[in-house]
């Protein structure tokens, strides 16, 4: 951190404490050259995530849409709500951790199917049938056969 008084690049932290209800950290620093003190604030940089839809339009990432899709697929299935929440959180975290600020709905859909396949096969097939827009029974059966062959 550069000293605001002399411009020296080295300083030491004298005191550190939470600020803004824990969303940032207030630090008191002392310049190692002129020995004057100054305050800095450290916050997490949050960049907005944008989702690219199939038609090319863009919208802000919304975790609740992922959770709703998972919940619809798991309706009347023995999948605990906590597991559905965990799946949505893991997908959100994976998307946020990627270096890209834009993600396609295809990538998100594949991540949802990957999580559902491990949690409940019927929920997986339900989601896949809507997501992949199965046109007829043959497409549906080929997906079921793939699932059976993986066992």
Automatic annotation (TrEMBL):
BP terms from Gene Ontology: negative regulation of DNA-templated transcription
Domain ATP-cone: 49-139
Listed GO MF terms: ATP binding; DNA binding; zinc ion binding
Chain intervals annotated as zinc finger (unnamed): 3-34
Domain of life: Bacteria
Cofactor comment: Binds 1 zinc ion.
Names of the cofactor(s): Zn(2+)
Alphabetic keyword roster: ATP-binding, DNA-binding, Metal-binding, Nucleotide-binding, Repressor, Transcription, Transcription regulation, Zinc, Zinc-finger
Stored PANTHER family: TRANSCRIPTIONAL REPRESSOR NRDR
Function noted in UniProt: Negatively regulates transcription of bacterial ribonucleotide reductase nrd genes and operons by binding to NrdR-boxes.
Sequence similarity: Belongs to the NrdR family.
Protein name (Swiss-Prot/TrEMBL): Transcriptional repressor NrdR
């Amino acid at each position: 951190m550069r000293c605001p008084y002399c411009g020296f690049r080295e300083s030491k932290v004298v005191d550190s404490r939470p600020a803004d209800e824990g969303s940032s950290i207030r630090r008191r620093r002392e310049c190692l050259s002129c020995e004057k003190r100054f305050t800095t604030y450290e916050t997490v940089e949050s960049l907005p995530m944008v989702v690219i839809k199939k038609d090319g339009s863009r919208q802000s990432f919304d975790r609740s849409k992922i959770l709703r899709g998972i919940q619809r697929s798991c309706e009347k299935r023995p999948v605990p709500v906590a597991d559905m929440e965990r799946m949505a959180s893991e997908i959100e975290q994976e998307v946020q951790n990627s270096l890209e600020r834009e993600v396609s709905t295809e990538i998100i859909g594949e991540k949802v199917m990957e999580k559902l396949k491990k949690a409940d096969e019927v929920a997986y097939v339900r989601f896949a049938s809507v997501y992949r827009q199965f046109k007829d029974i043959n497409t549906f059966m080929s997906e079921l056969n793939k699932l059976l062959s993986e066992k």
